[in-house]
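A student in our group prepared the protein record below, which I am reviewing. I have pasted the whole thing underneath without changing anything:
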Amino acid sequence: MSSYPQLSEEHALVRKTAREFAERRVAPAARKIDEGEYPRELLREMGELGLLAPHIPQEYGGAGLDFRSLVVSIEEIAKASPALATIAEVQGSMIAWNLYHYATEQIRERWLEDVAKGRRIVAFALSEPCCGSDATAIQTRAERRGGEWVVNGVKLWITSGLYADAYLVAARTGPPELRHKSISLFLVERSSCIETSPVKVMGVHGTGTAEVKLNDCRVGDEALVGKLNEGFQVVLDDLNNGRTCVGAIGLGIAEAAFAEAYAYTKRRTAFGRPLADFQVVQHYLANIYAQTEAVRHVVYTAAWYRDLKDPAFPMYAQLAKVLASRLAVDATRTAMQVMGGFGYSTDSRVEMLYRDAKATEIYEGANEVILNTVYKFLEKYT
């Protein structure tokens, strides 16, 4: 299909721009990124094309479009490099969104345009060694001293952590027993108070994943993003955006894996026949395609609900994330099986996609936590 009911001609133009950029600039660099090269220049180029934060108004460096435009952009980038798409979705759906909707005017004026244009990178610093899925148990603290906030703590698995120019830090500003009611968000600029060290991961290499230590980092009241002790509501808003975009990444991975496997079965022969002539192979490919088309509508609908401010958005954000991440893992595994030894080799893009796909089941909320959230919605609405 060339069009979908959730999308308009405007979104088709965004897709065309993103696809051309992905094919021209991202695909040739994908292996270098996979080998660990952080794609800062590509992020700047995405920003200049309006693909990094298309939903942010033009006066702040965006394209003045909508959230669906971001989702379409992320999907196309993910086909070429899930790692770049991961960095971009954090920068666009979480950081730029946060600064526009919740930051002080001072912070917006100083940071938002550079973030939307990809000139400066901000990492989302939530997870900690103690707490990934249980984010309300974080131990990083921000204490009031002499008219400033002093932030201390350790963050872990932070995308762009090695290379970020600033960090959006979730910190406890009240008693631990208040859990989510004593968490605030602060924009902490990189300085000598921050130490970073790399975290080696199975896939999505080149994302600068890091441990980030904050040692007496001092910020003023203007650095508060959202209201004091109400930062967790902002986090939830971020995560729903991020989960929808992870849905787009999973979708892009599945589409790329399908394209690789389909083309391979047409040119590879076995027992004197193209692989595509074998019914089991046809079933494998047809099943990937069927699942991809079904999941696509969930992802696009989630993004549409975000734009409509529909109360169904939080539920659909969870569905988009869990279904698309499962699809990404299943599609890449199946594509590799169809392609055999070649699929398992680094000469194949499917090998990279296979490793990258697994991350989508873990980041922005492990799928088990996502399903807990889905069940809570069921109890609420049924």
In short: The longest strand covers residues 148-158. The chain has a mean pLDDT of 96. Strands lie at 122-125, 141-145, 148-158, 166-172, 183-189, 194-198, 210-219, 269-270, 273-274. Residues 159 and 209 are 5 Å apart (CA to CA).
